[in-house]
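Fill in residues.
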């Protein structure tokens, strides 16, 4: 049997021969790694502990770093809107049972210019698209402005049935890396292809795969738009998926399972139990832009609406309003659900760049000189200054906005070193750093690299950046233990966390 302190191991998308027994459970691992907890006072709303918040924020920061490459600009939108907005979007009619409604003290009427109302009904947002439509509509738009790409990490709320709530995979409060692209009909293929490339890059970075791409097409009965519009849109999605097939990613069609407002592509992953989860999604939407009367000005509007080009000068001299197409996209889907999959995928052995426990410093004893040196090592390895930088007027200066302190832990207790090492291994730190009296004199540290996904990258950095020779490295399968200068250890960690391996 497995002890409670020894988390299980797992692989995401395992084959029958590699499926762990028993499979990892992110709820158990979440407790073992002090990532999150839940409370009956807020069912379905996880409380992230510092370790979990660190991983969550690293995921968000990773995506934010990619946004400029893919043309997204981040926005911030309200968590609560009046009932009238949800009536406009259609959510109140089709989604009200899954929403949280709130009665508020009205500051204005339901409609602009109406009398002030009391006890008005509001809804916590289950998705960001209506707010992004308000942003698009806040300015006059030209075809030259498109595509416009908004990204949003706002908290979302969905009133899931209490019996279905489970850890991080089924929650009531969650965050999506939500994005909406407002584009011309002729730009659909380009935007879908770019989004699929974005998905592939992210999932390759986390070694998540193979995943399934599923295209859901026009429903038989209930849909908006013309069959011709659907056929054109589905044709562009199929073309984008064929490009993915050339890169080795397989896709399939789920006939008639598209949303009533447009076709969609879902990305499906399997967890360590073999259960499938929809993570990323890409959806075309013809309806919402119409509901919000969104438009942009374009020449030859009749051709523009069909995504066609004309060279007829008379037609091009006439401009008119055209309704944009919205591409809904989420790369990770729910960050909470994606994090649950990663917890099980890595089973506590996180790559260093994402790890909430990249290193721990252990003292051989509790001698004051050793503990003081250990604190200095911790400060250097974490990447922060020992004391705040001061201006010429002796005032503390701020850290640069992009600075993130590496969460290096320390144990200077009088317990035996063997016990402290065993505990650190059970907690699955990436590195165990030991310091004693000889290290204080020599300004060195004893580093032991634990089993982790980025071991090969770590060895490469030690050889190429730090200058460790091949003779100093262990043979395959042996633990890596090295004596490094304190500055070398700091340089090594700072280089390692730059690598997504």
């Amino acid at each position: 049997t497995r002890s409670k302190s020894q988390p299980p191991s797992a692989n995401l998308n395992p084959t029958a021969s590699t499926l762990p027994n028993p499979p990892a459970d992110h709820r158990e691992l979440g407790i073992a790694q002090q990532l999150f907890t839940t409370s009956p006072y807020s069912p379905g709303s996880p409380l992230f502990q510092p370790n979990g918040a660190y991983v969550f924020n690293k995921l968000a920061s990773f995506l934010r770093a990619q946004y400029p490459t893919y043309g997204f600009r981040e926005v911030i939108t309200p968590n609560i809107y009046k009932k009238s907005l949800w009536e406009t979007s259609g959510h109140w009619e089709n989604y009200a049972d899954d929403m949280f409604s709130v009665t508020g003290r009205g500051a204005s009427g339901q409609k602009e210019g109406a009398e002030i109302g009391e006890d008005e009904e509001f809804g916590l947002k289950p998705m960001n698209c209506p707010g992004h439509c308000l942003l698009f509509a806040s300015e006059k738009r030209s075809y030259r402005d498109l595509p416009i790409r908004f990204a949003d990490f706002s908290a979302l709320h969905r009133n899931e049935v209490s019996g279905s709530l489970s850890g991080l995979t089924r929650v009531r409060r969650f965050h999506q890396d939500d994005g909406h692209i407002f584009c011309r009909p002729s730009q659909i293929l380009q935007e879908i292809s770019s989004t699929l490339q974005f998905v592939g890059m992210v999932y390759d970075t986390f070694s998540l795969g193979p995943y399934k791409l599923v295209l859901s097409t026009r429903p038989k009965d209930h849909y908006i738009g013309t069959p011709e519009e659907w056929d054109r849109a589905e044709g562009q999605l199929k073309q984008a998926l064929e490009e993915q097939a050339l890169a080795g990613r397989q896709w399939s069609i789920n006939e008639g399972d598209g949303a009533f407002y447009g076709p969609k592509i879902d990305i499906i992953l399997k967890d360590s139990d073999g259960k499938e989860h929809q993570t990323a999604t890409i959806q075309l939407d013809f309806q919402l832009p119409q509901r919000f009367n969104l438009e942009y000005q374009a020449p030859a509007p009749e051709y523009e609406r069909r995504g066609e080009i004309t060279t007829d000068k008379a037609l091009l001299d006439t401009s008119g309003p055209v309704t944009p197409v919205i591409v809904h996209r989420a790369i990770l889907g729910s960050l909470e659900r994606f994090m649950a999959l990663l917890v099980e995928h890595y089973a506590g052995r996180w790559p260093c760049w994402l790890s909430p426990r990249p290193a721990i410093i252990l003292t051989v004893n509790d001698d004051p000189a050793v503990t003081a040196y250990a604190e200095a090592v911790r400060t250097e390895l974490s990447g922060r200054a020992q004391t705040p930088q001061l201006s010429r007027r002796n005032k503390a200066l701020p850290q640069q906005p992009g600075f993130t302190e590496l969460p290096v832990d320390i144990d200077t207790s009088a317990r035996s070193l063997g016990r402290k090492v065993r505990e650190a291994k059970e907690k699955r730190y990436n590195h165990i750093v030991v310091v004693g009296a000889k290290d204080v004199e020599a300004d060195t540290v004893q580093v032991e690299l634990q089993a982790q996904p980025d071991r090969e990258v770590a060895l490469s950095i030690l050889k190429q950046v730090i200058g460790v020779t091949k003779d100093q490295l262990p043979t395959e399968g042996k633990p890596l233990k090295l004596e490094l200068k304190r500055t070398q250890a700091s340089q090594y960690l700072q280089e390692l966390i730059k690598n997504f391996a």
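The two ends are 31 Å apart (CA to CA).
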